Amino acid sequence: MLKKTIKKLSRSLGIDLKKYNLQTSETVRMQRLLAYHNIDLVFDVGANIGQYTKLLRELGYSGRIVSFEPLPTESELTEQERMRAQQERMRAEDLQALLQSYRERFGDLPE
Fold first, then answer.
1. What is the pTM (predicted TM-score) of this model?
2. What is the Cα–Cα distance from 63 to 56, expressed in whole angstroms?
3. How far is Cα 27 from Cα 58, in angstroms, rounded to an integer?
4. Fewer C-beta within 10 Å: the chain N or C terminus?
5. Predicted pLDDT at 53
6. What distance lies between CA 87 and its chain's CA centroid?
7. How confident is the model at residue 88 (pLDDT cuts 50, 70, 90)?
8. 58/53 Cα distance (integer angstroms)
9. SS3 letters across 21-72
10. For residue 71, which of 101, 93, 43 has the smallest C-alpha distance?
11. Angle, vertex CA 27, rays to CA 21 and CA 28, nearest 5
């Protein structure tokens, strides 16, 4: 009865409670994947405001993260988040500036 009440209350708050299973947990799976393949560089394309980077750091990932965000407002927020968290390995890149640099060097992107 108590379990049912808690589930009902949590769902009314927009929260879905699930039993944690170490064997099937997505976070554990991601930690194992990063460790097994010795991943030390992650490209976060479409970084938004850095949520994925935050998740990786919370999972214990200490490698380099290069984040690309094409929207200037979001890119600025990503840079602010990086500075706030003092994550020296995360470098927010402005995709528009990167594309402009490419165009200046090589011309338009192939279609």
1. 0.52
2. 9
3. 10
4. C
5. 87
6. 13
7. very low
8. 9
9. CCCCCHHHHHHHHHHHCCCCEEEEECCCCCHHHHHHHHCCCCCEEEEEECCH
10. 93
11. 65
